[in-house]
Design goal:
heterodimer, A: mainly alpha, 5 helices, globular, B: alpha+beta, 4 strands, 14% strand, elongated
């Protein structure tokens, strides 16, 4: 099972996710392989939440053991 | 005596079509389907500076009225990951009624016409009397 399948499964099983415009946008960008769009989306969310994108990136890498 | 012939001898063996065994996706515990949110998200605030991105719900619009009701802010997440903010201010009750400028011009023209009629009509009447005599 690849990450695409996992995300699709979560998206289908969670009705709240289905109605979330950010998730919808992220999924459509992921399906169309829009890497720049996804990067901008992540940057915007980090900026709004007052988080440093590099630190967040580091945390995600650590979570997945990289 | 006839030789025994097996009736299945001339039949081709029937094979089941190959069905590849797909790995089963582990089933997740089924979640109860939640109804769409019908209430309003948000909270009362003393100042808008205390609001953070975590206060804004990912579902729909969050409303933040000030405790003194002097202002209300509505916030929502955009699809591009930014937060859209709209500020609402109260309408004062003692504001003057809005006058339509076109109505005002029409009223002035009517008033002018009345004045002109008052000036012209008596002179016309005098002129007609003079012509008759």
């Amino acid at each position: 099972m690849n990450p695409n399948m996992i995300l699709n499964m979560i998206f289908q099983r969670n009705p709240q996710m289905r109605n979330n415009p950010i998730v919808q946008n992220a999924l459509s960008m992921m399906q169309s392989n829009n890497i720049n769009g996804l990067q901008t989306l992540a940057q915007n969310i980090c900026k709004e939440k007052g988080a440093d994108i590099n630190q967040v990136q580091q945390q995600i890498k650590q979570f997945f053991g990289n | 005596m006839q030789p025994f012939v097996n009736p299945m001898y001339f039949q081709q063996p029937q094979y089941q079509p190959y069905q590849p065994q797909m790995p089963q996706i582990p089933s997740m515990p089924s979640q109860s389907i939640q109804n769409p949110i019908t209430g309003i998200n948000g909270k009362w605030v003393d100042s808008f500076e205390s609001l953070t991105a975590n206060d804004v719900s990912m579902q729909g619009i969050s409303v933040f009225p000030k405790n003194d009701l002097s202002e209300i802010i509505c916030k929502r997440w955009n699809a591009n990951g930014t937060i859209e903010t709209v500020l609402y201010l109260p309408q004062k009750g003692d504001t003057e009624p809005i006058i339509d400028p076109i109505d005002e011009i029409k009223r002035s023209i009517e008033a002018l016409n009345e004045k002109i009629d008052k000036v012209i009509k008596p002179t016309k009447a005098k002129k007609e009397v003079a012509d008759e005599s």
